[in-house]
Amino acid sequence: MSAGFWLGDVATPMRDGVALQADVWHHGEPRPAVVFRTPYGRRAITSDVLRPVDCLHGGFAAVCQDTRGRFGSEGDWEPIMWDQEALDAYDTVEWVARQEWCDGRVILAGTSYGGIVSFLGAAQRPPSLAGVAAAMVTSGSRDLRELGGAMRLEQVVSWLLYMAADWLRRRPQDADAETVATLHALLLDPEPALAALPLAEGPLARLRGFPIDVPALLAGRVPTTPEWEPAAVGVPVFVTTGWFDVFASATIDAFRDAVRAHPELAHRLVVGPWAHTGPLPHHTGELNFGITASAAAATVPAQQLAFFADPAAVAPRHEVRYFLMGADQWHTADAWPPRATRSEVLHLGRAGVLGPEPEAAGAVDSLVHDPLDPVPSRGGRVIHLGRSTPGPIDLSRQLERPDVLGYRTAELDEPLDVVGAVHADLTVSVSQPDADLVVRLVDVRPDGRVYPVAEGVARLSHVLGGPADGTPARVRVALGYTAQRFGPGHRLGLLVTGSAFPHLDRNLSTGEPSSTSAEARTVAVDLHLADSTLSIDVHHQEGPR
Predict the structure, then answer these.
(1) Nearest CA to 154 among 505, 535, 544?
(2) 534 contacts 380 by C-beta, under 8 angstroms
């Protein structure tokens, strides 16, 4: 392999005459090229999935581009500009394909925002596109389903503050002294912005000049994630995520959608014990999953490059490589969930029992939730941009709260592998027009530690299509996908409560949004046990491969 060449500050022209700035690494001869597009700075890409240096050493050219209006690129930046991103991705692919150092084959790659715009560009069907390598992505419809009417408050606020800080750095003349002081204070401590009621009248309202409608964003009226048509992505897809990524289930569904839309093409999915971060190490939260758990040890970049070298030649055509937590082993399958998986149902019962037999009719557990004293979000699938820490973090102290209901199985005699989808069907009645059901599958360890495994939320007014009226209603709460071994002596547990703040915005129980209202009511939630169940996908492993 040649040492390679680097070209800095390369202008890549778009169809409207705007030039987007890029850096290029190439071999001096035609090779396939990987394109990374980012709004966060083309020289600040830090990812354990795929980096320009990996591409160069793997025999590919690499292009890192600032998206429109960001850092070195011309044009006007808007925080939400998905249609424009799709067109710019198309134009970038075709420009790269025409360069003498590219052999005409181009792969779009990126993590989070970069992965989303890769799918958006792919859906435009640029003729030279040969594949998509995306990590930790979601779409609008999937996000709406997964959040069940709630909003990831900390993610939205943290992202807004991050983007506002960059805007202020680049355009200091557009901000007044109060805006500068407010932003500086919130970057040091975002709590006042998260805790404000109404949200839109809190400190964020003092960010003037910032090119986004902050009240609309906090009210959920701004489409923070886009939609693309899976059938339009007619190229091989390699997607990567982690079990503690906020977009874990959505990324897995991106793989499943690709397989359904184009089964004739090769597709790959890799899921490790990781969170929504650039570094993907072997430790997350409080647990160390062993040295083989990191993306580097699992050779994810090398797998991606080998796959895209010739997708038509790889076998099997569809492959899933997932990390089974608890066993701390990598496994492979040809589908998700693995084919040797069956669904099992556990019933919620009196005295915190989670077992195979349904409870007698009339049994009710109750909790009283105060929106002004919400259950704090802790671990699990949370974003790391604020002050929360994702991953397996002990939740045992939350069981001491009177507004948290806990259920657990008997101690297991042998390992039980939950691999696939998890959902809870709960029958509830509430004393106010609205309430949230926040549900977590947890691993209850013999020493008393309680670690989150999967989680979901349902806002009653959203899933019922209107205010709750006090009559029992059956609600399905999707907890997403997971792969967790519950070892001998462990128990499966289920936690049910009314909040996870500040990860999720507060439900004030009145039916009014916390973005524009400050009135909060305490709500009583009755859980009707005879009609409440947990469904899990159980898999019989043949051993690691």
Answers:
(1) 505
(2) no
